[in-house]
Design brief:
By secondary structure, this protein is of the alpha/beta class. It is built from ten helices and eight strands.
């Protein structure tokens, strides 16, 4: 096992300001597929001894310089050691081909982060939690179902990527529609092989059509404006490989979340188009250590970066109570 040599920027190129309450440095770690992942490590200043640690990732198509970094830095301000990482094949992380997503490998990325955190001298390996945002909220729940080292999980403004790929938004795709989608994606595989490269699906639509659905306007307002644009973000630019959707159609990621024994906090905006993902996932889980928190009037991307809406104090209490 060895780290791949990655080229990491040393400049502060985040979409949020740097905090003077934490120390920051770049780190790398690897997953069990041999892919080296790049991350930002945020560490509270002037705190001695073993710390609780949190690994953060998401949203789907974002990079660690966006929402996950904001979450990690904010949790470090509240006394946790936190890392925000780029998933395999994206951002500053390794892996070829670029811009591909995988229900298995992206779940593994969370466990690889736990591997890394468990080896740090100033981290208590029995007090590690994870935060997944948007699509990585689903991967976080999937990781919690398989990795018993994860003692507490937060899924914020969650997407179930396997469900939305297999059934469309609001479960609008039927069997025939799914078959046609498979035909289209497999035909694209043939074209990609002929061309020697992978077609990108395109990031958030730009320019924004006047008749775009509200949630598309919501995404545009984050990924395509100064608020959240980043040059390495897939959603801000060319998007994922088109054929990435195939594996999600066939491999549901939340099959065993009813067996999660550790604590879970699911957070979603009341007016988010995606709220049904969190509500349905919460119903599947069992135990009195599971909680669903609906944020009044919030939309999907409010929980990306609006610090007055994201319940960080609630997250602090949740992790303090369950990482002990």
């Amino acid at each position: 096992m060895k780290n791949e040599k990655l080229i990491l920027t040393e400049e502060w190129d985040k979409t949020f300001p740097k905090s003077d309450k934490v120390n920051h440095r770049k780190i790398t770690f690897y997953n069990r597929y041999g892919i080296t992942l790049a991350a930002d490590l945020y560490e509270p200043k002037n705190i001695m001894g073993k710390l609780s640690a949190i690994a953060v990732c998401g949203p789907f198509g974002a990079v660690k310089e966006q929402c996950s970094g904001l979450y990690a830095q904010t949790m470090a301000e509240r006394g946790f050691l936190a890392i925000a990482f780029d998933p395999s094949f994206t951002g500053e992380s390794g892996g070829q081909p670029r811009y591909v997503a995988s229900p298995d490998i992206n779940t593994e990325d969370f466990s690889a982060a736990v591997d890394f955190l468990s080896t740090l001298e100033n981290v208590d390996s029995e007090r590690i939690g994870i935060i997944g945002i948007c699509g990585w909220g689903g991967f976080a729940l999937n990781a919690a179902a398989i990795d018993t080292r994860i003692k507490a999980t937060v899924a914020s403004t969650m997407y179930d990527m396997s469900r939305v790929n297999a059934k469309g938004y609001f479960d609008s795709m039927d069997v025939d529609g799914r078959y046609e989608l498979r035909k289209t994606l497999n035909a694209q595989r043939t074209e990609d092989y002929k061309n020697g490269n992978y077609q990108l699906s395109g990031g958030v639509v730009d320019p924004l059509p006047e008749d775009a659905p509200f949630f598309v306007k919501d995404y545009y307002d984050y990924y395509k404006t100064e608020r959240g644009y980043h040059k390495r973000s897939l959603n801000s630019n060319g998007g994922w490989n088109t054929t990435s959707s195939l594996s999600f159609i066939n491999m549901p990621i939340l099959s065993y979340i009813n067996e999660i024994r550790s604590a879970v906090l699911v957070i979603h905006g009341e007016k988010a188009h995606s709220c049904y993902f969190s509500k349905d996932a919460f119903v599947k889980m069992t135990g009195d250590n599971k909680e669903l928190l609906i944020i009044t009037d919030a939309v999907h991307t409010d929980l990306y970066d609006k610090t007055g809406i994201i319940p960080f104090d609630k997250l602090k209490v949740f992790f303090e109570e369950n990482l002990k």
